[in-house]
Amino acid sequence: MHEPNPIFAADLAVPAVIREAPGVFLQGRRIRSLVFSTDLAVICHCNADAVLAVYPFTCQPAITQALVAASQRPVLNGVGGSITHGERCVEVALHSEMQGVAAVVVNTSIPVETVSALTERLNVPVVVTVCADDAQAARQIAAGANMVNVAAGAATAAVVEALRARYPELPIIATGGPTEASVAATIAAGADAISWTPPDIRELERAVMEKARRLAAEQGAS
Fold first, then answer.
1. Which of 34, 88, 107, 211 is most deeply packed, by most CB within 10 A?
2. Residue 87: CB atoms within 10 Å
């Protein structure tokens, strides 16, 4: 069946094939799809099961509060990495937990000691973003990471497959790539849930305006 282009739909729909993923459980819900965005307009008009809110700055409580309030579904909130780590990362993560996030996310450069501190002091899952099945990922998982988020570009499915073989019970979130075929391949490799990057908001606005102009022209000609 032909899927409608989400750019022209009332809401942004994640690829239908994501429904084949087994899912991870957060806040009592089975999560198969996560929208990778901090844009509230996109989040509020997307049908993803959860929100992966990671951005390249130190986590701000005001942003976290807005995301949790607007999303109406589990939010996995970025709290640290190369910029924010150590006790500052732990403080930000504890604040995020109190604000109601479903999990906290750190990137691949986070020190192993920070992963250990997070898992010791938080009640919500700690998700480590990994780019390879390497010694760094193994140390972070051994330090107590509850989940991994695989973001390895074109190699994502291969990294997922290697991690799944090494850690059969480890919950794995992974980027799905640009097509339904790449999403399906990532799920087949062992991903439990898929993060989906929506179209750029400028692209969406441009498409809506072009459609509006066409409709206005057609009405004017009739």
1. 34
2. 9
Q: What is the DSSP string of 20-61?
A: GS--EEETTEEE-EEEE---HHHHHTB--SEEEE--SS---H
Quick one: fold of 10-221? Answer: TIM Barrel (3.20.20)
Comparing C-alpha atoms, which of 44, 96, 34 is closest to residue 65?
96
**Do the strands 29-31 and 24-26 form a parallel or antiparallel pair, or are they unpaired?**
antiparallel
| Confidence at residue 193, expressed as pLDDT on a 0 to 100 scale | 98
- Alpha helices for the chain (secondary structure H): 40-44, 61-71, 86-99, 112-121, 135-142, 156-166, 180-189, 201-221
pLDDT digits (tens, 9 = 90+) for 166-200: 999 999 999 998 899 999 999 999 999 999 999 88
Answer whether residue 82 shows pLDDT above 70. yes
Is 50 exceeded by the pLDDT of residue 69? yes
Residue type, 48: A
End-to-end CA separation in angstroms for the chain:
33
Residues 6+ apart with CB under 8 A from 16: 3, 180
Angle, CA of 80, 81 and 85, to the nearest 5°: 65
> CA-CA distance, 221 to 34, in Å (whole number)?
43
Buried b (16+ CB within 10 A) or exposed e, 178-208: eeeebbbbbbebbbbbbbbebeeeeebeeee
* Three-class secondary structure of residue 163 per DSSP: helix
